[in-house]
């Protein structure tokens, strides 16, 4: 355990280019200890590169990365971090038990093997060769490698990508247990409901930058995405000027108003006697995500 | 690091390619060559000469196999996973080198044992010691060449390149058929191969001679060349990782 109180993860104006592409572009992100943070973004947003920078797998071209106030590589050497890359990491010709015993053995204070097997729900696979696992089983073994050293920070790049619905639910049960022990957890995902449900905080990336950062409720609000719609009736361009409305679209004989303040919008509609077949649809994170990332593209 | 060596040795022993090329083939070929009278000269001398040849051949198999493993590890994302554990890169490289050094031992031991137990080879103890030591230490250049291929090439092509190199060096170096039976133009080439110098050190010892300076210098020069190649491959692989 470290005694310092530095943030678990800290990226400061970090930039990483691959040729002409800025995969990560002046990204600043601080994650205090104990937080569960979802890193959300479309493919190519820079999620995996961000993770590689903060784990010290890639050096930033400029800016800084630190884990627990240490150089990332140093923090990894001290066993403070465990990580599951998006793919790979399983070597052929070893059993699950042999692999996990080895990985755990490199950490100063690992979890007992039985705990790890239970946590990753791979009790029954312990003597199975890792090259003979199904995709979902392999994913769970990879997760076990990330947590077996009992690190303070757990970084997971798309951890549930190969899991079915049931396995995803079980996986998040396990993660909740780890979070309740005060672990700092950073995961990337494009399952938006997962970010919504399991993260204290959602960081949306686009083009290598943070484009939104907050609780999932805050992000939905920031993206102004409650949709108020009424039946179209004659000239309706004036509806775009109603309070709260940020975007208007006429489609299927209805006017769809995206609003940051649905109460004010609905009241104004009522005052103007324009309420016809009113519908108010709350935003889900998916809408917020699409809105934020497309706004970024404009 | 020892946990890493243990894991890598476990993986090596379960590798069919290693067991076949590094242990089984050399022993089988040794017994076939010597007992079907295919080896030249007096039966006892042939048993000694071919024993050294085949032990060297087996050691080459083990050394190159270790290099192919690197390419496989990289393709599997294992090298990156290792960077996410507290192991340092130096420990990982050292672990792989130790694994390679241990992996050549079973092949050498199996052929020498077959020599003693089946073909009743008997040599003074100090000659045994010198042969074992030279056969073992002399694998370093080949390990480096195998590692260079492993770093430079992708999984499948590295394995193919290493098997092809291993077979070429074995045959050309006179490990299968003595260079004395080669046509003169081929013998001229053979005398410059690292495998011929490598086995040559132990052939000389086995028959009570001292290795020639030429053999020592030549093998050292190849050590240098393959060392540079391995470092070049490692750097290239590092840029892509």
Automatic annotation (TrEMBL), chain A:
The keyword NAD does not apply. The keyword Cell membrane does not apply. SMART domains: AAA. Pfam families: ABC_tran (PF00005). One of its GO terms (biological process) is response to antibiotic. GO terms for molecular function: ATP binding; ATP hydrolysis activity. Keywords: Antibiotic resistance, ATP-binding, Nucleotide-binding, Transport. Residues 9-232 form the ABC transporter domain. PROSITE patterns: ABC_TRANSPORTER_1 (PS00211), ABC_TRANSPORTER_2 (PS50893). Its main location: membrane. This is ABC transporter ATP-binding protein. It comes from Microbispora hainanensis. The lineage of its organism: Bacteria, Bacillati, Actinomycetota, Actinomycetes, Streptosporangiales.
Automatic annotation (TrEMBL), chain B:
It is found in: Membrane. GO terms for molecular function: ABC-type transporter activity. It is a multi-pass membrane protein. PANTHER family: NODULATION PROTEIN J. One of its GO terms (cellular component) is ATP-binding cassette (ABC) transporter complex. The keyword Transmembrane applies. It comes from Microbispora hainanensis. Keywords: Antibiotic resistance, Membrane, Transmembrane, Transmembrane helix. The chain crosses the membrane at residues 16-34, 46-64, 93-116, 128-147, 159-177, 216-234. InterPro entries: ABC2_TM, ABC_2_transport, Nod_factor_ABC_transporter. Pfam families: ABC2_membrane. Residues 8-194 form the ABC-2 type transporter transmembrane domain. GO terms for biological process: response to antibiotic. This is ABC transporter permease. It comes from the Bacteria.
